[in-house]
Amino acid sequence: MNPTISTDRSGASQGAAAWSGVLALALGAFALIASEFMPVSLLTPIAADLHVSEGQAGQAISISGAFAVLTSLFVSALAGRLDRKILLLGLTVLMMVSGTIVAFAPNHVVFMLGRALIGVVIGGFWSMSAAVVMRLVPEQQVSRAMAIVNGGNALATVIAAPLGSYIAALVGWRWAFFCVVPVTAIALGWKLLSLPSMAVAPGAGSFNVARVAECAPLSCRSADTTIRPALGARPGCARPGRSAAVLREPPAGRPIAGARGPDPGGRR
Fold first, then answer.
1. CATH number corresponding to 4-194
2. Residues 222-251: pLDDT tens digits?
3. Where are the chain's structural domains?
4. Rounded to two decimals, what is the model's pTM?
């Protein structure tokens, strides 16, 4: 059975928007991004404590990114029709486990394991955050809700590294990581109380993620005019709206960013 993402908006249309759930997601996003970027300012003490080079300590960022990419590709297929509230709560618990493992890691291997787990949470959360928000608020307020969620992301991006460095100077790098765990616990309880059940309805208003990825894997403006014709010639990919899901065709007469044409002097 092919994995699908439901676009059912019944939860948002039947009553008041679940703004408390949106704020809970924003807090979870803050804790998640803070955990992701925490090592940036702590490579030197981490390397010294775990007896590795600073380059090896820096791999903590690379491994979380790698697992985030892998998870985002397969989370829909693996989750299937699992209630998205349960999935979000599970990812939040996994974030707490990751922070605890990293904070008390006795060696570099265990430390990297904890960082891999946070990568799984990153990929899982961001791959479905927009779809979840769309089910929490009415359509006309989705952009505002997404701005709130991404506000938690932006705030953590700005303060995570300097705040982590400050805490590490006071009580050590391990406590800098562990300080995120209580914040995550608060987000967990908030999500548990505020998020409605979000069951995935089979076949209703859904699209096939695997098929779209197969037909149009890139979203790059510089590649629009070269990839789109090839997709049109490929069986099964030429149906209206298929490639339009991820590729944009520039308006007539509008040059493509990065493309070079003849200048007034006749040169190319």
1. 1.20.1250.20
2. 333 334 444 444 455 544 444 444 444 444
3. 4-194, 221-268
4. 0.70
